[in-house]
Amino acid sequence: MSRIPSSSSFTSLNSKQTTHQMWCKINSSNPVLCKFPTKKPKLGPKSITFSSSSNNKKQEFISSTAVTQVQVPESNAYNLKFKTLGGCKLGISRYPDFEYDAEGGIGTGSGTKVPDSELNDEISVSFDIKSLYIPPLTSATTKFLGLPLPPFLKIDIVPEFFQGSIDRESGKVDLEFMAKFWFSVGSIYRAPPLLVKTVLTSEESNGTIRSGRGKRLDKEGNCSLVGVATVDPIDDFLMNTFLGLPTECLANLNAVISFSNSS
Fold first, then answer.
1. CA 193 to CA 244: how far, in whole Å?
2. Over 112-177, what HEC string results?
3. pLDDT greater than 50 at residue 48
4. Which residue in 108, 117, 132, 204 has its CB near the most CB atoms, within 10 A?
5. Is the pTM of the predicted complex or chain greater than 0.85?
């Protein structure tokens, strides 16, 4: 006698069939989420973006360089030129002044701005002695009592020291000057040099028997410098007696001093 399956057996069988069908459907469907693209992405836009960034950096660098150049401070170093002019005077002892045409004298020097100075534009200057030339006193350059010096008489001026300070704002000039003055009469006589040391100033210079007043530097560089000095005796009886050494001498020198920035 055959056995009839129970309802629970049918239920279990149907459940297995349903599970099997669902498993088949899931495995037979295409898994879209697991599919990867086969085409390679284009890198063109990235290259453009990189180039733009590079250009921006280049422009920023150029801009920064330009700003740096504008902000470079003015140089504090200067080149100087010195020229002597006509209309000068030289005097010694109680004799009348010599009329002296110093046109043609030249010299070069250097200067630096004085830091922490009370003056706004004070320059410390020093002239190159090797380049400094001051014309001699001769019959062509000098007159005494309205007459030229005798053609055989000559006084050479040999500078040994020339430096000091110039305030370009006020025009005040103070330059220490030292030179040897060589008297000669042709080839017959040549005296030992007279040593003259003074401060050539645009202000007032006073001695016991001599005095003078200069003029400050103007916008064109013109000035008048004066200085009184004591001249000591030398090893020459004739010169000591003739000039009355020791005594004072006076120099009144018209000049042009020009500045340029040092590179």
1. 15
2. EECCCCCCCCEEEEEECHHHCECCCECCCCEEECCEECCCCEEEEEEEEEEEEEEECCCCCEEEEE
3. no
4. 132
5. no
Coil, strand or helix at 253: strand
Closest CA to 152 of 108, 125, 114, 189: 189
DSSP, collapsed to helix, strand or coil, labels residue 239 as helix
Question: Which residues fall within 8 angstroms of residue 210, CB to CB, at 6 or more apart?
Answer: 91, 228, 248, 249, 250
Check if the beta carbon of residue 175 is closer than 8 Å to that of residue 164.
Answer: yes
Token pair, residue 199, equals 């401060």
| Per-residue confidence band for 261, with pLDDT thresholds at 50, 70 and 90 | confident
Q: What is the pLDDT of residues 151-210, one digit of tens each?
A: 999 999 999 999 999 999 999 999 999 999 999 999 999 999 999 999 999 999 999 999
Q: Retrieve residue 6's tokens.
A: 């129970």
Contact 215, 202 (CB under 8 A): yes
Instruction: Please say if the pLDDT value at position 68 is more than 90.
Output: no
Give the pLDDT confidence of 70-127 residue by residue, as tens digits. Answer: 444 556 899 999 999 999 999 999 999 999 999 999 999 999 998 876 667 899 999 9
- Residue 211: CB atoms within 10 Å: 13
Q: What is the full DSSP assignment across 55-96? A: HHHHHHHHHHHHHHHHTPPPP-EEEEEEEE-SSEEEEETTSP
Short-list 197, 206, 157, 208, CA closest to 175? 197
Structure tokens at 260: 């340029």
Distance CA 218, CA 109 (A): 19
Residues in the chain: 263
Coil, strand or helix at 26: helix
Strand 106-113 and strand 122-127: pairing?
Answer: antiparallel
Q: What does DSSP assign to residue 209? A: S
